[in-house]
Recover the amino acids of this structure.
């Protein structure tokens, strides 16, 4: 199983949007038994919350499910468990480097 993690600051806008779209594409290609996606935030302000209202609106407009996506904070274990970690911007990369320390 290939595991992909999308990371942004709060895990309610960009990374859950990327996770949902990526999952949708993986399912369309019938690769969901080979590729798994998740998302997390470098900050913990929104832990347990669903994606932002604007994110949900975009996903609904495009008929993409966001079922089961709730905000969580990235952990050092994630850095070990995921094959690919995709940060949404340069500051997220810098924050991810701090998780490894």
């Amino acid at each position: 199983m290939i595991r992909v993690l999308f990371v942004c600051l709060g895990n309610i806008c960009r990374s859950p949007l990327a996770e949902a779209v990526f999952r949708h594409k993986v399912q369309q290609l019938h690769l969901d038994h080979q590729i798994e996606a998740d998302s997390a935030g470098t900050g913990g302000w929104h832990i347990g919350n669903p994606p932002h209202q604007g994110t949900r609106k975009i996903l609904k407009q495009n008929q993409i499910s966001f079922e089961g996506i709730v905000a969580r904070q990235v952990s050092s274990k994630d850095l070990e468990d995921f094959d690919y970690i995709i940060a949404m911007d340069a500051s997220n990369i810098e924050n991810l480097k701090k998780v490894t320390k």
In short: The CA atoms of residues 48 and 71 lie 5 Å apart. The two ends are 27 Å apart (CA to CA).
